[in-house]
Amino acid sequence: MTLRDAQAQVDAWISQFEEGYWPPLSNLARLTEEVGELAREMNHRFGHKPKKPDEPEQDLAIELADVLFVLLVIANEQKIDLEEALERVLEKYRTRDAKRWTPARP
């Protein structure tokens, strides 16, 4: 699935509801919530905060996908083509950081 396909699927899902897209700041709050859930799970797995004995294990892939979903929502609501934006940002990193890191050995 391409990012454009993903954006189209998210748009199709949201468009079936009368409420449609939330306002930008509500979407930002939602993104913050989802990133917080991802951070909590990462901290449980790799950080210093152990889970409570009765706290269930979360699916890290789902937590990442929740963040991606809200990013797609924000992009759609703002009429941003994320595929094109990602290409631009990758070129920025290729140019800016070309000599910043030690090349991997073959």
Summarize the structure.
With 106 residues, the protein is mostly helical. It has helices at 3-15, 24-46, 60-77, 82-96.
Model description:
This protein is mostly helical and 106 residues long. It has one domain: MazG-like (Helix Hairpins), CATH 1.10.287. It has four helices and no strands. The chain is flat.
Set out the fold topology:
Elements lengths: L2 H13 L8 H23 L13 H18 L4 H15 L10
CATH C-level category:
Mainly Alpha
Helix content: 55-70%
How many helices in DSSP terms? 4
What letter string, H or E per element, gives the SSE order?
A: HHHH
Report strand %: under 5%
Structural class: mainly alpha
State the CATH topology. Answer: Helix Hairpins
- Net shape: flat
Q: What's the structural domain tally?
A: 1
Largest beta sheet, briefly?
Answer: none
CATH superfamily: MazG-like
Rg: 18 Å
Question: Unreliable runs, pLDDT <50, ≥5 residues?
Answer: none
Number of strands: 0
Distance between the termini: 30 Å
Structure keywords:
flat, mainly alpha, 4 helices
